Structure formats: structure tokens, C-alpha cells
Amino acid sequence: LRxxxxxxxxxxxxxxxxxxxxxxxxxxxAKLGARMGNCRDIARTIIEFFASNCSPRDMLxxxxxxxxxxxxxxGSAYLVILLDGLASTLILIxxxxxxxxxxxxxxxxxxxxxxxxxxxxxxxxxxxxxxSAALRIGNAIQxxxxxxxxxxxxxxxxxxxxxxxQNIALVSSxxxxxxxxxxxxxxxxxxxxxxxxxxxxxxxxxxGNDVTSATTKLSKEEDDNxxxxxxxxxxxxxxVVVWTSMHDDMSKYAGAEFxxxxxxxxxNCIRKWEAINMFRYVxxxxxxxxxxxxxxxxxxxxxxxxxxxxxxxxxxDFPCSTQIFAILKAIERVMIAAPDTLMRKKAFSALKRV
Length: 354
Hints:
One of its GO terms (molecular function) is ubiquitin-protein transferase inhibitor activity. This is Aberrant root formation protein 4. It comes from Aegilops tauschii subsp. strangulata. By secondary structure, this protein is mainly α. It has two domains: 2-265; 267-354, no CATH class. The chain has 22 helices and no strands. Helix 8 runs parallel beside helix 10 (181-197) and helix 14 (233-246) packs across helix 19 (290-303). It is elongated, with a radius of gyration of 22 Å.
């Protein structure tokens, strides 16, 4: 790898040679870097050299193709090296930013989801490294957003927000491993900062309205397949709220805005039911830990106090009533499957109040 880097950096190397090598080297370089820990920095340097000296659009295609190459050994480390290269490349894109992002993100999220499904508790920190690399992709898109204006900026911010929510849902599924739960919370915090940059609010996350608004901005016929890669965005919105209540750093970052959003939801009948219905995504899923579900129930009980029943009976319309069955079913699942008596009692209390 050092010989390759020395050649690329030497005066004898020309653009034609670099372009030719960029087609072939990223995959084997990333594989070597992943296999041998002391080679990772030089592997990153080589791929970043290609990103800086070759066509950014070509490099996006080359690196996305490399992402899809299955690697049996140290697959997460291999992906981290490639994701770092993609982040460096995205920053260099000069035009058609949104179109390029729409090519890259589905490839990234697809391989991340596949890779995480193979992770076990022993490889939990590898998953955290992978999410940190994916965060650098988000940071690169954030830099793109800063250069754009008007509806193009709004569209790219919507994409970035949905990308952050999808990753928050995937991170949260890894927090089932107790040894990395606190670290997962720190990663979620960094993704939450991207959400705030994109204009998402705790009120909009509580009710799900910010997610609906973001997807509406992208709901064109040609975007249908693209939106599929954000299938856990609603989960992510609910999970941001849950992590804010259970992780000290998240709570400090949210500050008074989170408490204000909770109060506004409690005081508004329609928003209250929107927020209640959002918890079904977490409570009905097998992907999230019992700790996350327990904090979800705590928040749900905060929203549905004893006095709200009489207030809301006359205001619930039919569409909302049909959605209530979904949250009731989700709470019932927790009540049946929860591993301890205290949580089952908590779920039963939530079921009665809803």
C-alpha cells in the first residue's frame, strides 16, 4: 500500500494512470486496510487521493460499486474505509448535488442494513464505527446544503433529515447490546444535530409531522424507489424523543425545547393523539431493546394522564380512531412479552389510559 501511495504521489504519475488505477484499486485497497489494522490509515489516504484527483462523479460510482462487494472478513472495517472515501468525494461535487446524493444514499443504507443484521454483541463497537462513518456522509451532505438556496436547499435538507432518522433507527437496533448502549446514545446525539440543522423540531418529531412534511417534499413519481430506503424514518422520529428522555447528553442538548414540545402536545388534543400513535413504531417492533420500550411507555404515560379521557372523547375523529387500534395492539404485545413484572404492569397501565 505504501508503494502504491508513493507511485500516485510521484511526479511520474499522470492523470491517465490515476484514472485507470482508480477503477481497479479501491476494492483491494479497502480490503487490505480492513484486514490489517495498521494499514487502515494508508488505505484511507490512497482512496482520498483518488477522490481528490479523479472525477468526483466517477469516484462516487466506483465507491458505490465497491460497497456492494461482499467481504467475509472485517466487513465493517472495509465499509468504513469506503464510506470515508465517499464522504471526501461528496464534498467535491460541484453540480447536480441532489441527483448524486440520490444515487449514493440507497447504496449506503442498503449495505449498512445488511451488515448490521450480521453483527452480534461481540462486534458491537464495529457497528458503532460504521455509524460514525455514515455520520461523516451526513456531515458532507450538510456542507452541500450550506451552498444551496431556496427549494433545492429544502429538498436536500429533507433528504438529509430522513437519512439521519433512518440511521437513528438502525443505531437504536444495535443498542440491544448492553456494552455499547451509552455509545449508541452519543451517536444518536450527533445525528440529532443534523436533524436540527435541517429544520426538524421536537414537536414535529413527537407528532411525526416533520417526517410527513419531508417525505411530501420528495414525493414525486421518480422518487418512489428512493423513499423506500428511508423505511424506518418514523421509527427514527419516535426514537429521537425516547433517547432524549433516557440519555443525559441528549437531554442537555434538547434543553427547554423538549419540555416545551411535550407540554404543547399535552395541551392540544389532536397533537396528543398524533404523538400517542407515533409510539406504535417502537413498541410493535422486535428491533429495539426493552430499555427503549420501557422509556417509550414512560413517555406515553406522561402524555396520557388520567384526566385526558373525558377531554378527548368528543374530539377523536374516525381516522384517528382506526390508528388507535394499532397503538393498543403494540402496547398489548409489550404487556404479553415483557421480561419483567414491572414493565408488564407499566404496559397495562398505558393500555388502560389510551
